[in-house]
Amino acid sequence: MSRAVVVGEASLVLGFKSAGFEIVDVPDGEKLLTELNRLARDSDVALVLVTEPIAAQAPEALRQFREVSRAILTTIPTHLGSKHLGFKDMRSLVERSIGVDMLGKE
Q: pLDDT tens for residues 97-106?
C-alpha cells in the first residue's frame, strides 16, 4: 500500500497526521538528507511533502531524492510565509522540457 509522508519540524507538520500522513520530524537540513535517503529506498512511499524552511536548508537532499526515488516530492509553505520553492522547481522542469519560459518571469 502506498504511503504519504510529510517531513519537517514537528510543530509544523503534526496536523497532517489527521489526514493520514506519516510524520517525520526533521529539525535541520542535515537530518533532512538522512531521512530523505531512507525514504528514497522505501518503495511504498508515493508522496513526500517537505516544509519550505527545511527544504531551503538542504536543496541538494531534494535533488538526490528525486534522482533515485519514483515518489512525488514537493515543498509546502508554512505560516512563516512561502519562498515559492515548489514553483521554482516546476518552472525549471517546464523550461528544460520545452525550452520556453511558459510560466512567466518572477
A: 666 665 565 5
